[in-house]
Specification:
Strand content: 15-25%
Low-confidence stretches: 1-6
Structural class: alpha+beta
Shape: globular
Oligomer: single chain
Radius of gyration: 27 Å
Strand order of the largest sheet: 3-5-1-12-9-10-11
Number of strands: 30
């Protein structure tokens, strides 16, 4: 990608890197406090059962044990209703059926790993040992693991409040318009796909230390999170403790991917323990606990129908979704429906759209937002359908896209499902990607692979997604200037590896014309938490929101400084000019440095902004080689052209894209959470069984930018964090299917593992003889 510098900077490395690469970072498990106690959770080993009894008497007698809490304590405290966001009316006015979720299970357990009891002791080892002594009696019940089976008649009933395990049924678009488009279609393409359940697996396991202050009945958390404001609201709703009594501390976060957004039951259970003992209580999750209990991602099954005219123009599309939410609805559950509806038309002009959603409850770990939160899912099904239509009509996959793009002159484009896309140059992005990937030369490369006994395939995806926006009323920023000319910026956005300290500082440095090292970004400071509003970091919103407000605050500081300098220089503010950290006037010889206006006391300015969604888009092209003797897939080439609006730091953007592409590749080629259908036991509960992408999976990505500045924010930026994942899922799947299609293999669902491909290839060869 281009490395052209932003503003007056030369290429800028990440400010954070010196700390993070030298072991000087501070993560959730690095906090320790005098007199702290240690927590260990007792977890159920069965997926669906009635709890007959939980007896902690023996555990309480174990040396060092201070407290044992059970579901009865959770119910007594009223910590039973986890917040959820499926709050809109469903089909025929249906209201969401959301089961209670006590922070420690009470009455029944609903997935393997659900917390039953909490043991508190003087040491982590004592707590873990004593947890083995907690006696639990169950009456086993049959589980419902697969979402379509859970919704089928006669399936085991999991929650009384959700008959048939159906939490919500909803719809979007116009059913009659789709049926009319279907009736006049010259061709209809049908494809059913699964976007498999995955474990987000951030590098840093979950950890949390909670302290209770009896004087004002408040709580302070040291933990991994994606931002204060969203988490605080979730915690308050769950526990009934008012938001002003909840404060959070986090310095460095080892990855988030949406999984760090919600208030987990464990955090609320720790509140009970901290209040009961009067001591800080610390819990650090193991990786195996993470696989079982950290929210999973994706888990959607989509049955798609695309109708076309005789020239290959799209007429209508229907998508019937089954959304597996696991055992309970969580605070970040809405994205699976909202975001898939927002971008249902993809980058195409499809006049008639209709979707149905059936939200299933199953005996599995709850599902929540994961990098893209529905955006990669909708991109996947639309792009797989489009590719299949190209195959059916014997059209070039690039050509069918070209024919159906929303044309540049149609922007801003109101979609049939009610979104408004901002401007995008979709044909320009496509042509740049085709040239970059040497699309026309693919035939020669395929022949060369064939000579080596390899199957080669090429896949393309052209995608768009909504980013930015957010639930907060506004994004606040406070900027403080000291006499030395240093600027400290307070924001509620919280990096989990996103380089806020670099990107936001560059925005302020550019606006003020001062060296980058004079700007310090402070995220979610304890003393500012209840003063500043702002969105948490998720949904690729932080630079659009908080970053834009950093720019506005800098402009405000200049205006404040111009007035102060005018008084000092004895001129009117209109006669004062500002550039590169210096105020001057043509009417006097004196100048003032920026820091001079803060000599008597620091100068503080506040700025705010509320910004809507931006719509980054791109074209990704992948080539793969498959060894038919082993089924192994190698990504032979990967190309990405993305419209991300104005780019602040090219290296940061490139890193975000590369990480997203690797994450998508991991899901397509290997990642998959698997449960035993009969027992609900997790079969992929460690990295020995769960295939995480390795560094060499995507060896090289050639990328270019094709920016169209956004009008949503004053910076012209669009979100970036999820783009790589949204584009790579369909591009790689399309490439693998292109390689296999000459053998007569029509469809395979992810993950496209070597074993799955080997069996498919050999079954196809056997059938051809």
């Amino acid at each position: 990608m281009s490395t052209a510098p932003h503003g007056h900077h030369g290429p800028v490395g990440r400010v954070e890197d010196a700390r993070l690469t030298t072991g000087s970072g501070k993560y959730a498990a690095d906090w320790s406090f005098p007199g702290q106690l240690y927590a260990h959770f007792v977890r159920t080993d069965r997926a669906h059962a009635e709890i007959i009894s939980v007896d902690g008497a023996k555990a309480l007698k174990h040396p060092g044990v201070k407290l044992v809490l059970t579901g009865a304590d959770a119910v007594r405290a009223g910590y039973i209703k986890q917040m959820h966001t499926l709050t809109f009316a469903g089909k025929n006015g249906m209201q969401t059926r959301a089961p209670d979720r006590p922070v420690l299970a009470h009455g029944k357990v609903h997935f393997v790993g659900e917390a039953l009891a909490l043991v508190i002791a003087n040491t982590a080892a004592a707590a873990q040992d004593a947890a083995e002594l907690v006696e639990v009696k169950f009456r086993d019940l049959p589980p419902a693991i697969h979402p379509e089976e859970a919704l089928a008649p006669g399936a085991p009933q999991l929650h009384e409040v959700a008959p048939g395990n159906l939490s919500l049924e909803s719809e979007a678009g116009d059913a009659a318009a789709f049926e009319a488009a279907l009736a006049k279609a010259a061709h209809v393409t049908r494809l059913k796909v699964e976007v498999t359940r995955v474990a987000p697996s951030p590098m840093e396991p979950r950890a949390c230390t909670v302290a209770h202050a009896a004087a004002d009945d408040s709580y302070t958390f040291h933990m991994c999170m994606q931002g204060v404001t969203t988490l605080r609201k979730h915690m308050s709703v769950y526990t009934g403790v008012s938001e002003d009594k909840l404060s959070f501390v986090a310095r460095d976060i080892g990855g988030g991917f949406g999984q760090r957004t919600p208030a987990y039951p464990e955090y609320c259970a720790l509140m009970l323990a901290a209040k009961a003992t009067g001591k800080p209580v610390r819990w650090v999750s193991s990786r195996s606990e993470g696989f079982m209990t950290d929210t999973h991602g994706r888990a959607n099954i989509i049955d798609g129908t695309l109708s076309l005219d005789s020239d290959g123009h799209f007429l209508g599309m229907r998508l019937n979704w089954v959304n597996d939410m696991g055992a309970y609805l969580g605070p970040a559950s809405m994205g699976h429906i909202r975001n898939t509806t927002t971008c249902m038309t993809g980058v195409y002009r499809i006049p008639a759209l209709y979707a149905t959603y059936r939200v299933a409850l199953t005996s599995t770990t709850p599902v929540s937002s994961y990098r893209g939160a529905g955006r990669p899912d909708i991109a996947y099904v639309v792009e797989r359908l489009v590719d299949q239509a190209a195959v059916d009509l014997k059209l070039d996959p690039a050509e069918i896209r070209r024919r159906n793009f929303i044309p540049p002159q149609a922007f801003p484009y109101k979609t049939p499902t009610g979104s408004t896309y901002e401007y995008a140059d979709l044909p320009g992005v496509l042509e740049k990607a085709l040239k970059l990937a040497d699309w026309k030369g693919y035939g020669k490369r395929r022949a060369q692979s064939g000579k080596k006994g390899k199957l080669r395939g090429i896949g393309i995806s052209t995608v768009i997604e909504n980013t930015g926006a957010g639930a907060a009323a506004k994004d606040d920023v406070e900027m403080v200037l000291d006499a030395a000319g240093n600027v400290t910026v307070h924001t509620q956005a919280k990096s989990q590896g996103h380089s806020h300290e670099t990107t936001f500082a560059m925005i302020v440095s550019d606006a003020l014309g001062i060296p980058l090292e004079r700007v310090k970004i402070v995220q979610g400071a304890l003393e500012k938490q209840h003063q500043l509003q702002g969105n948490h970091t998720g949904g690729s919103r932080s630079t659009v929101g908080a970053g834009s407000v950093c720019h506005l605050a800098a402009q405000k500081l200049i205006e404040h400084g111009r007035a102060a300098a005018a008084l000092e220089l004895g001129v009117e503010p209109s006669q004062v000019e500002y550039a590169k950290g210096v105020f001057h006037s043509k009417d006097v010889k004196r100048t003032l440095k920026l820091g001079d206006i803060a000599k008597s006391k620091p100068v503080s300015v506040a700025a705010e902004g509320k910004f809507g969604s931006t719509f980054p888009n791109g074209c990704h092209i992948a080539e793969v080689e498959i060894d038919p003797e082993t089924g192994t897939t190698e990504i032979a080439a990967y190309y990405a052209v993305d419209d991300l609006g104005t780019v602040i730091n090219h290296a940061v953007v490139e890193g975000q894209l590369h990480g997203g592409v690797a994450m998508g590749a991991g899901q397509i080629l290997g990642e998959h959470i698997v449960y035993d259908r009969a027992t609900g036991q997790l079969l992929t509960g460690s990295f020995m069984d769960y295939c995480m992408p390795r560094a060499g999976l995507v060896k090289d990505i050639k990328g270019e930018e094709h920016p169209t500045p956004s009008k949503v924010s004053p910076l012209g930026v669009k979100g970036v964090g999820e783009s790589g994942c949204t584009g790579s899922l369909p591009a790689l799947a399309n490439a693998v299917m292109d390689a296999l299609r000459p053998l007569g293999i029509k469809h395979l669902d992810m993950p496209l593992t070597s074993g799955k491909l080997w069996h498919a290839i050999h079954a196809a060869r056997k059938g051809s003889h």
